[in-house]
Every structure is written in C-alpha cells, then in structure tokens.
Fold:
Amino acid sequence: MPAAGVLVRERTAADLPALVDILARQQPLSQYPFRWPLPFPAEEFIARDGERAAWVAEVAGRVAGHVSVTGIAGNTDHDELITAWTDATGATRDQLGCLSALFADVDVRGRGVGRALMDVAEGWIVDHGLYPVLDVVPVGAPMALYAQRGWRVVGEARPPWLPDAEPPMQAMVLDRPG
Structure:
C-alpha cells in the first residue's frame, strides 16, 4: 500500500519532461546518476532500452518520483553484475528483473515516495516470476533502505566510467518469498 498521499501509476511519455527536471534537481544530493551530466539525453536514462514496466509517483497531483523494471537477457555491459546475480539466485539472465532508475524529488523526501515506488516494482517483478536484482554505486545511495527491505549484496563490479577512487558498483538481490 503506498504511503499516505502518494499515488503510483504507470509512466507515460508526457511524464518525461517533469522526470528529467526531478532527476537533475535531485542528483547533487543523491549523486544518482553517478555520472552527471550524462553523456546522452536524460530521457534515455529514464526510459531505457529493455524496459519491461515503469511507474511514477505523484504527490498532490504532481509527478514526484520514478522507478522502472528492465530485463537484462541481452545485456552484456555488466557481465560481472549479471554473473553475481545469476550465481546468487540460480536464475538465468532472462529470469531476472532489474529495479532501475529509482529516484524521487527532493521536495518530497521522507514522505514514502521511494518506498511506494519500490513496493510496486518489487511486487511486479515477483508477480511475473522473476528474481529481483539491482545495481548501485554506494555513494549517496539509499543502501540502508535497500538493506531494511531485505536486499543483499552478492557481488561488485567496476565499470569503465567509474573513477578508481570511488567504491565499486554493488550487485544486489532481493530473495523472493517462499
């Protein structure tokens, strides 16, 4: 059940301009995405290739956050992460659902927007018989929130764009119930 005053609905193309603005405003505080400015249009970071589903959160009728679920079956960009996920879950690439592009407006911090978005995305992944996975650079990231929700680190990787002075990207899984 979403937090009081938070409505989660499917994302539409009309939401993208507001989401780009939210992403840009929250980035200095969250350091997400880690690379900023992005080397490609922010719309492509939000609405990704391989996307299976996407949602926005609204607060008081205004777009306030985003999350999506992507597939990784054809993805070869993050082989170290994929190997960690498949080893930890016993699943194949096509059985993984990656929680992606999770962010919320700085104006609604602490109101349950991130939790509401994660509830919907995690539920969708499990309901579709997939194994929930995500990757995160643990700098300014909500690692405590992930841990509270049962996500666990199963591996790490150092993509070429990540500076050596930064901690490695973490591969995380959420064990499915039952």
